[in-house]
Design goal:
Layout (H helix, E strand, L loop, with lengths): L1 E3 L10 H4 L20 E3 L21 H9 L15 H39 L4 H24 L1
Antiparallel strand pairs: 1-2
Length: 154
């Protein structure tokens, strides 16, 4: 694959890359022809045929690591997992598992929010509130304290 070095590329494309564009400076309304772009070959090494693993497989996965590799879809069965794997493979699988776990926790948090909202609406329909609960609890404590003080004086 070849890319022109003078083109706006991935990050360019602003006014500086296109020129000033003043009015009445030429037959094209101020637009100047860009100089011939130099062609620079760009090497895509990640697209070339290479062996499956660049790093020597030097890590023996534990049972938990094997479960992570299976859960993230790297291997279909536990028998497919080689006795030694590259550490980078396990790092990628752990990162993927971390993201999946975060998505699961986000989903559970949303479900819990709706459950709390529903229970609060039911409590409001019964005319219950945290304030009334606290007042009742403190009144009960005062009554128990008065009974304990009365029992001591006898």
């Amino acid at each position: 694959a070849v890319r022109a070095a003078g083109s706006a590329g991935r990050f360019g494309g602003g006014r500086a890359a296109r020129g000033r564009g003043g009015a009445g400076l030429g037959p094209h309304g101020g637009r100047r022809e860009a100089p011939a772009a130099r062609v620079v070959p760009v090497v895509f090494s990640h697209l070339q045929a290479e062996p499956a693993h660049k790093v020597v497989a030097s890590y023996k996965p534990s049972k938990f690591d094997k479960k992570i590799l299976l859960w993230t879809g790297r291997f279909k069965t536990e028998e497919e997992i080689p006795p030694r794997i590259p550490p980078e493979m396990l790092d990628r699988a752990r990162n993927k598992a971390r993201v999946k776990a975060c998505y699961i926790m986000i989903g559970l948090s949303v479900v819990a929010c709706f459950a709390v909202i529903a229970s609060a609406k039911k409590a409001a329909a019964r005319h219950e509130s945290l304030t009334s609960w606290n007042l009742a609890k403190k009144a009960k404590w005062r009554q128990e304290a008065a009974l304990a003080a009365e029992a001591k004086t006898k």
